[in-house]
Amino acid sequence: MAESAPVKTPPGEMPQALRVILASPRGFCAGVERAIEIVERALEIYGPPVYVRHEIVHNKHVVETLRNKGAVFVEELTEIPEGAMTVFSAHGVPQAVVKEAGRRALPVIDATCPLVSKVHREGQNLVGKGREVIMIGHEGHPEVEGTRGQIPGGVHLVSRVEDVERLDVRDPTLVGYVTQTTLSVDDTRDVIEALKKRFPGIKGPGAKDICYATQNRQMAVRRLAEQVDLLLVVGARNSSNSNRLAEIGTTMGVPSFLIDDASMVQDDWFRGVSVVGVTAGASAPERLVRDLVARIGHVAPAQTEELGGIEEHMQFKLPRVLTDAMRERGIEPDDSRDRHDLHVA
Ligand code: SF4
């Protein structure tokens, strides 16, 4: 519940003043920043159009901004003309897509997040050691589709503890598991426990496949939810990590809403509210958080503060094919600049 709110709002009434607490860290992760920069650099170097398979990251504002600069988003390689510059999204792609691009000789820049590629390698290593692979993840998410298509022989997919009992494997002593990078840390721990109980010899990374950004944002929102009456999460409906943030708020008993942007905010949500928590999923630009804070200010005069948290300094190198092309054109890749707000005008 609220601490030191300017004015305590009575139940059911609209607030006269609000305290807004921003989670930290929130918003863009290193994988998203890298993916967006890859598309921007490709446009700069090769000129538009640059074709991107699937939304580069799950955020319509990011996609729209890049579309305006000349990126063309497609779902299938068949939609890409011969010889056109092609980028794979941050979620990764199945081997079949890599091979198809090779067969068509499409020039490809792979924006798969290095932490997703790491999960692919873990799965491949398990298969190399004769193990069947179980993936903890959500059916239909492009990262899951990419990972299951990167592991020879495919994977058994489980999402919940109940799915573990239904698994049908060749040899229960020869199994391993990997996880989607953007899961709930708590839910995944329970599924891993169930897997270990059913397959005592199972090998896997623990919860370590869940990426640093997902873990940090979940930890921050948990701290935030202890202090607020209402939680607003900026992120897309199809963004896995954003959904998990809103779920944490709900599980902790705080009314929580996942919103694309400030235009989705409803004044009624603020009845009886004194303190509002705000966070953003890993693919949501900071501009949307600023717009949201401004929108909250229209509900009632708002005092905004940051909830101190873990500082992130993670940066991933751009793909070699791109840095080589940049250097050929006299552009020195600069890893030192602050990319946090760079991309979305
Ligand atoms: S959320 Fe994690 S795995 Fe996904 S792009 Fe960001 S850093 Fe990579």
Describe this entry's structure for a reader.
With 345 residues, this protein is an alpha/beta fold. The chain folds into three domains: 18-28 and 212-306, Cobalt-precorrin-4 Transmethylase, domain 1 (3-Layer(aba) Sandwich), CATH 3.40.1010.20; 30-112 and 316-340, Rossmann fold (3-Layer(aba) Sandwich), CATH 3.40.50; 115-209, 4-hydroxy-3-methylbut-2-enyl diphosphate reductase, catalytic domain (Cobalt-precorrin-4 Transmethylase, domain 1, 3-Layer(aba) Sandwich). Helix content is 37%, strand content 15%. It contains eleven helices and twelve strands. The chain has helices spanning 30-46, 60-69, 95-103, 114-128, 142-148, 161-165, 185-198, 212-225, 240-251, 286-299, 320-328, and strands at 18-22, 50-53, 71-74, 86-88, 108-110, 132-136, 156-158, 175-179, 230-234, 256-259, 275-280, 302-306. The chain has a five-stranded parallel sheet with strand order 10-9-11-1-12, sandwiched between helices. A four-stranded parallel sheet has the order 3-2-4-5. Helix 3 links the parallel strand 4 (86-88) and strand 5. The longest helix has 17 residues, at 30-46. Mean pLDDT is 94; it is low at 337-345. Iron/sulfur cluster is lined by residues 29-32, 90, 113, 115-116, 181-182, 211, 213-214, 241, 282.
Strands, count = 12
Mean of the pLDDT scores? 94
Percent helix, as a range, is: 25-40%
Q: How many domains, as an integer?
A: 3
The number of distinct helices, counting runs of at least 4 residues, comes to 11
Radius of gyration: 22 Å
Strand content: 15-25%
The first-level CATH class name of the largest domain: Alpha Beta
Sheet with the most strands: spatial strand order: 10-9-11-1-12
